[in-house]
Design goal:
The chain has about 475 residues and is α+β, with helices and mostly antiparallel strands. It is about 20% helix and about 35% strand. It contains nine helices and 26 strands. The strands form six sheets. It has a six-stranded mixed β-sheet with strand order 2-3-1-4-5-6, with helices on both faces. The chain has a six-stranded antiparallel beta barrel with strand order 7-8-14-11-10-15. A six-stranded antiparallel β-barrel has the order 17-23-20-19-25-26. The longest helix has 17 residues. Bound molecules: guanosine-5'-diphosphate. Guanosine-5'-diphosphate binds next to helix 2.
Length: about 475
């Protein structure tokens, strides 16, 4: 017998219930919150640039920087001191590579940014995907020195791949930091050359020209980053990463799907609670809707329910969280065995579909071997990666008009847009159409360590169809 639907808020006394939409509206009158990802080829200077910036903003103490400078000198790499602000583990330091997504916060006049640092090394792209999946805006760092811009921009460089990745993950607004111009004597010709080449590519990749901001900088000296470059042809340029930054302030805040059913894709979980030993804790970003302490949620797949006991939102204790928030919460009544990477927490009355077969519209990247029916891939969805294959090529589509160019194509070559059917090899996963959920409706296809395509879910197909 079906029992009448009980509100997920039933366990919370009426006096303690939070009117989340009203609270959210209050919060929205405060500074808009944006997540920013820093991308670019390895050694482009991402860590140095962001480290210098955070230092200049006062986020890092003089004492810490002095310590980093001493340590860096000891190993003969004094220029690494700023980069260490972002690279926190010893292994990363000795290799000089940023491996994980370290988060940092900073503010401008009208915005609050959470900085998701992205690794530049090729092997680390899967990590970057999970960071970029949370990004609203991006900074693309390119090395302007002779030969280095070109190396990052060629077929094996990550400049293009990263840009395509963030665009296909929904990032529409981007600052392009043309970096290391100190080495190039602040050559205006070099800056314009890079701007023209990269600009053409980025527009082809689907960015709008008006949403791209090119700035000449040196992350090392800080010129045009936090101070104006002196005596150079480019000295008219406004420093971009400063508190009053016109560049950072003109990023438009994203629309958060607050009125949609609650969804939170779990990126991490562990036994024990925040500040106590009972319960299980889960971390992730709220993709849609909202949740509050005392509310009942359900873990999909599995369907096991739990009650939210305590929460931290954007690193602070809170009693509610909403779409766009990074959230750590402790749940009671939920067995940790019911959680796995890829779990999505939902509201009990409306849960995310679970499927192993779906239709997607994809953009094919710079690939050497065309995609044919049966093509095996690793499917990246949120923080999950699963073996899958492209089982059917439905149609090739005109990127600008959306019209079908060719039905049942035999293969898909680089640059094409197409509708395909994808089947997971091992297990079904929670997945939604892009129309229903912009975060849970995106996928990335990789093969042999390279990204071959990215796209959006257009239809959930039932098993075996
Ligand atoms: P990442 O791999 O993109 O994070 O790059 P890093 O920040 O680790 O920098 C790579 C190398 O370039 C380091 O040796 C830095 O000192 C150097 N570097 C970074 N930014 C600049 C810059 O603006 N000018 C100069 N001359 N060197 C820089």
């Amino acid at each position: 017998p079906s029992s009448p639907k009980v509100s997920p808020l039933a366990k919370i006394p009426a006096s303690k219930r939070v009117d989340v939409e009203a609270e959210y509206a209050k919060r929205s009158s405060e500074k808009a919150k944006l997540n920013m990802v820093v991308i670019g080829h390895v050694d482009a200077g991402k860590s140095t640039l962001m480290g210098h910036f955070l230092y200049a903003l006062g986020q890092v103490s003089d004492k810490t920087i002095k310590k980093y400078e001493r340590e860096a000198q000891k190993i003969g790499k004094s220029s690494f001191a700023y980069a260490w602000v972002l690279d926190e583990t010893g292994e990363e330091r000795s290799r000089g590579i940023t491996m994980d997504i370290a988060t940092n916060h900073f503010e401008t006049k009208s915005k609050q940014f959470t900085l998701l640092d992205a690794p530049g090394h090729r092997d680390f792209i899967p990590n970057m995907i999970s960071g970029a999946a949370q990004a609203d805006v991006a900074i693309l760092v390119v090395d302007a020195t002779t030969g280095e811009f070109e190396a990052g921009f060629d077929a094996n460089g990550q400049t293009k791949e990263h840009a395509l990745l963030v665009r296909s993950l929904g990032v529409q607004q981007m600052i392009v930091a043309v970096n290391k111009l100190d080495v190039m004597d602040w050559s205006e010709a070099r800056f314009e050359e890079i701007k023209a080449k990269l600009g053409t590519f980025l527009v082809q990749a689907g960015f709008r020209k008006s949403k791209l901001y090119f700035v000449p900088v040196s992350g090392l000296t800080g010129e045009n980053l936090v101070s104006r470059s002196a005596d150079t042809p480019l000295n008219q340029c406004e420093p971009f990463l400063i508190y009053e930054s016109r560049f950072l302030d003109q990023f438009e805040p994203p629309m958060r799907p607050l009125d949609r059913p609650f969804r939170m894709a779990v990126s991490d979980f562990f036994k024990g609670g925040i500040g106590s030993s009972s319960g299980v804790s889960v971390a992730g970003r709220i993709d849609a809707g909202h949740v509050q302490v005392g509310e009942q949620v359900v873990a999909i797949p599995g369907g096991e329910t739990g009650i939210v006991k305590t929460m931290q939102v954007n690193d602070e204790t809170a009693n509610w969280g909403a779409a766009g928030d990074s959230c750590l919460m402790t749940l009671t009544g939920l067995d940790i065995m019911q959680l796995s990477s890829g779990t999505v927490l939902c509201t009990p009355s409306n849960v995310v579909p679970v499927t192993s077969h779906f239709e997607a519209q994809i953009v094919v990247f710079d690939i050497k071997v065309p995609i044919t029916s049966g093509f095996p891939v690793i499917l990246h969805h949120q923080s999950l990666n699963e073996p899958a294959s492209v089982v059917k090529l439905v149609a090739i589509i005109d990127k600008s008009t959306g019209e079908i160019i060719k039905k049942n194509p035999r293969h898909l070559s680089k640059g094409s847009t197409a509708t395909v059917r994808i089947k997971l090899a091992n297990r079904p996963i929670p997945l939604e159409t892009f129309k229903d959920n912009k975060d849970l409706g995106r996928v990335m296809l990789r093969k042999g360590g390279e990204t071959v395509a990215a796209g959006v879910v257009t239809q959930i197909l039932s098993f075996g169809s």
